[in-house]
User: What shape does this take?
Amino acid sequence: MKPVKVGICGLGTVGGGTFNVLQRNAEEIARRAGRGIEVAQIAMRSSNPNCQITGTPITNDVFAVATNPEIDIVIELIGGYTVARELVLKSIDNGKHVVTANKALIAVHGNEIFAKAREKGVIVAFEAAVAGGIPVIKAIREGLSANRINWVAGIINGTGNFILTEMREKGRTFPDVLAEAQALGYAEADPTFDVEGIDAAHKLTILASIAFGIPLQFDKAYTEGITQLTTADVNYAEALGYRIKHLGVARSTANGIELRVHPTLIPADRLIANVNGVMNAVMVNGDAAGSTLFYGAGAGMEPTASSVIADLVDVVRAMTSDPENRVPHLAFQPDSLSAHPILPIEACESAYYLRIQAKDHPGVLAQVASILSERGINIESIMQKEVEEQDGLVPMILLTHRVVEQHMNDAITALEALQDVIGSVVRIRVEQLN
Assistant: This one.
């Protein structure tokens, strides 16, 4: 059987890794796919010194790959929203299957792309778009297809996890660790997507669609970054038996789907709380399988290439199959997607960590407890520290039981209005992940 011909668009970190692994493991990959896979063209703006591409046709025009009649599968690794979207749609229009690692593209334009792919009878595969080398999309879409998924929770941005790990283990400040992350290449010069939760929200949007059978709705995801976290809060959480992680949470409730990324206290004895450095992990809770944990490298040249090539093998296997009998892009058949709404953050339910800076006056704690009680918020535990010498204030740390966020918002407004409470109340959500 003649080999399948692929075109790689983008020869950066992931593109270079994909090319190298395809060459190095060509025989093994062919055994798995049932036929050889040949890189027939590469589109790139600049060369990659880590790749020996001598003999492979090169172009600087990505659309030349999309229209090349010799190409069966286009691998999109250029990133971004605009050119990538145009490239993928043009490839589909020309009857080519697509493999992509572009989480932003899928999260924002996936509904349009998948509709076009169904119309043309081609496959768009995107395992590498979430959690690098961890095959979590395949696990949810196929391995857990017997389950009603209750929730998904993940550490799905390695940069943020590296920063929080350094803050906890070494007592360093956020700006200090961010500078090191940039120097090491973990964070971009503009780290906004990583530290503000946007990158994680792209990935969570995809996971939620596959888990719950809903359209992709990135614009409705709640995002909150880690830039305001202090080493004090990291240490207080540790003293209470928790770790702070930048967590993505998607949960199905009777009222709708929670879709949120934010700093989160997790009990220190949970496996996911002990995922450190730049590693990623995703927990999935289903009604039949219970909780499962997927752990591994969330980025990097060859881990991500592993997922790209796994998709490539799947596409090669399925190329001759009836389009109606292929695994659906979002796990559920297109005409069976749910209209279950995405909940606003105010309607989501969580437990909370609160840190209140108060004057050292009698009765302040009673006032705090009264405000919470009036709004149906139960306190689980209280930790009151010594008076801080520099300002004479007492830090009060509280853990609450689960409550709808709007009630907590109302309580915080009332707490900050107290004469003896100074500054803003620090609020961090808590998840038990039982």
In short: The CA atoms of residues 184 and 432 lie 33 Å apart. The first helix runs from residue 13 to 24. The radius of gyration is 24 Å. The domain at 347-430 is CATH 3.30.70.260 (Alpha-Beta Plaits).
